Structures are given as C-alpha cells and as structure tokens.
Amino acid sequence: MKRCIALKAVTLALIAAVGQSASAAEDTIKVGILHSLSGTMAISETALKETALMTIADINAHGGVMGKKLEPVIVDPASNWPLFAEKARQLITKDKVAVVFGCWTSVSRKSVLPVFKELNSLLFYPVQYEGEELEKNVFYTGAAPNQQAIPAVEYLMSKDGGEAKRFVLLGTDYVYPRTTNKILRAFLKSKGIADADIMEEYTPFGHSDYQTIIAKIKDFSAQGKKTAVISTINGDSNVPFYKELGNAGLKATEVPVVAFSVGEEELRGVDTKPLVGELAAWNYFMSLKNPQNDAFTKMYKEWAVKNKLPNAETAVTNDPMEATYVGIHMWKQAVEKAKSTDTDKVIAAMSGQTFKAPSGFTLEMDPKNHHLHKPVFIGEVKGNGQFNVVWKTKGPVKAQPWSPFIAGNDKKKDEVVASK
To answer: What is the pTM of this model?
Structure first.
C-alpha cells in the first residue's frame, strides 16, 4: 500500500513537472542564431550574435512577441560551410525554432538554402552580398550590389572620388567576391574601362601574407593612371591586409582602397592611423548622428559592459549589426501582424514592413523581392577607427537582386517569391 501511494505521488509530480514544462514552452518562441563564433569569420560574426541577443533581450523586456518571450538558441558552425547546413537543420528540426538569424559569407548562405527550402523555414540574412538570388525562405537585410558596390565604384570614378581610371579587384576566393567582381567588370566595361586596366586577385580564407600582392598593386598603379582598389576580402584576413598596406606606405591619396566587408568591428584589430582616408561603402556607420543611432550605440555599449564582452570599453557597432537589429524587429512586427509564427503567414506579413533604423532612415521591406530599400554611405577611415561620411544617397535605394550588368538579367523581373 505504501509503495503504491509513493508511486502515485511520484507519477503526479512527474505529470505536474511535464505540465509546467509544456506551459513554459508555450510561453516562449524559440529563435535560432547561426553565426561563426570560431574560425576565420569569428572576427565579424561574433558581434552579430551579440547584437541578436541584445535585441532579443530588449524585445523581451518590452513584452516579447504576442506576449511571449523569445528564447535564443545559439549554435556555432565554426566557419565550416557544410556545417552551416547541419546546424541549420538542427535548429529547425530538433530545437524547433520559428526563425533563424544568421550567416555572413555567401557560401554559408548557399549551404543552408536547401535546408530552409526543404523544411519551409525562415532565414534573415544580414550582410551585403552579390545578388543573383531571390528565395521565398530568405529575407535579405544587407545590401544588393546596386546598394553598395556600384555606387562605390561610381564614386571612385567621380571628381570627388579621385577620378580613378584603373582598378584592382581584390577579394577572398569564394562566391561573393567573384560574382561581385563579375558585375563590376561589366559595369567598368560599360564606362569605357579596358580589361588591361583591371587587375583581379583572390586569396583563400584566412590568408595572412599580403606582401607580394601589395607589391603587385604598387607596380600596377605606377603606370600613369589613377588606380583604386576594390576590396572584397572577408574575415580575419583584413587585419594582415591593412597592416601590410600601412607597412608598404601605400597611402589613400595615392591608391585609395574601398572595402565592402570592413567596418568598425574589423578595424578594432588594426592601427588605423596609417589608413586614414581609406574608404568603405555601407548602408550604416556608427558615426551617424541621429536619435535612433544614439539609442542603438548606447544600447550596445551597455550590453557589452554588462555581459563583459572582450574590450567592452571600446565596443563598436557596424552595418551588419544594424541589419541584424532591423531584421529581428521586422520579423517581430510581421509575427504580430500575422498573429502567428507560421512561415507562410509571416512571409506574407513581411511585405511592406517598415522600421526607423539607426541609419536615420525608415527602411521598407520590398513587397516583391524580399530585400530592404536602404540608403548608401561612403565613409573615410579616421584615426580612431570610425568613419567620416563623404558621400551618401538622398534616401533609401530599392535593391536590384538581378544586376542589369550581367547578360540576361534585363529579362528577369523582381517577383513575388512567396508564390513560388
């Protein structure tokens, strides 16, 4: 009799515990964070993980989403491109996340696309990329080429940008740099630049010896025409590249470098004094002055100190961090509009979503092509590692996922991908 009573008590306790666990689960919405926290891309992606956690914590502090708390699930694909797909599948099938915020490189995004399509889940991708893609299951909150690469080269060719006539296309050897440079070659050709005036070089991920390449750039630029470097180097290779640039005495006034993957976070590991005047093209800079950015930078600095992040006292924000912040808030708005985390309902509700971003502009999610309308800024590196804006668009620019400079794309139209 005593044994039966004891077993009954244990059973009731277990049922109560399971009930409490189920109730707790019903009160939360799991969201995935898929960023490299180790390996060559950790220098860039770790800050995006922290931005996502900060944004989630802020949303939770203000009532959550539909009255439910967001529960972040963090995985580390470790700069290993096939592992991104494995970790994405884990987040969706095992952890049951409603959405994933993540990836940096295009090769990592390409790796996970089949998983998100097969399982009909959502990825918010926060980094500038090469375009030539339009997927139902992805929202692109970074820049398309016409929102970064093309305006940057147009600036370099202008009087204000130095009227460059020769170009070095220097990048990491993978999808984004090669496709972007294919677009830029075609664009330069349309402007009358000959193939002989374009030098194209690639290095592997993690490359650290740029002495030979810098020497080749110096030789290439010494042939009588103003030369500029377009850098699509990604990850920790930017540190030795900029160090060698400084060591070689190649100044911005002689051969300017405009970077598409270097922002405030990457420059924290470099002595920026020899790099004053070098350029970067983005849709956001930490140095922008407006109330939204003041609040955003203050929030992140406080987050860094509170969570004892490395070098918290010098914490910075950058473009992909802003894109992460905007993407999470837009997803929240779409879920609340749809009154559901169902993928197809959220996709429909994302159409036309707007958000007043730290850039100072109200950004809109295009109703048809899953890309944001974004402003474009070109900034010069300052001695303190920040950027001084030297050029900007008057307002947000609509993304062109399919570049008109690639043959055949003139026949492609931005489509309502939700119907695919």
So the answer is: 0.91
- Domain 29-143+291-311+320-374 sits in CATH at 3.40.50.2300
Q: How far apart are CA 130 and CA 337, in angstroms?
A: 31
Tens-binned pLDDT, residue by residue, of the chain (420 aa)? 555 555 555 555 544 444 444 444 579 999 999 999 999 999 999 999 999 999 999 999 999 999 999 999 999 999 999 999 999 999 999 999 999 999 999 999 999 999 999 999 999 999 999 999 999 999 999 999 999 999 999 999 999 999 999 999 999 999 999 999 999 999 999 999 999 999 999 999 999 999 999 999 999 999 889 999 999 999 999 999 999 998 998 999 999 999 999 999 989 878 898 899 999 999 999 999 999 999 999 999 999 999 999 999 999 999 999 999 999 999 999 999 999 999 999 999 999 999 999 999 999 999 999 999 999 999 999 999 999 999 999 999 999 999 999 877 765 655 555 444
Query: Are 179 and 273 a contacting pair, CB within 8 Å?
Result: no
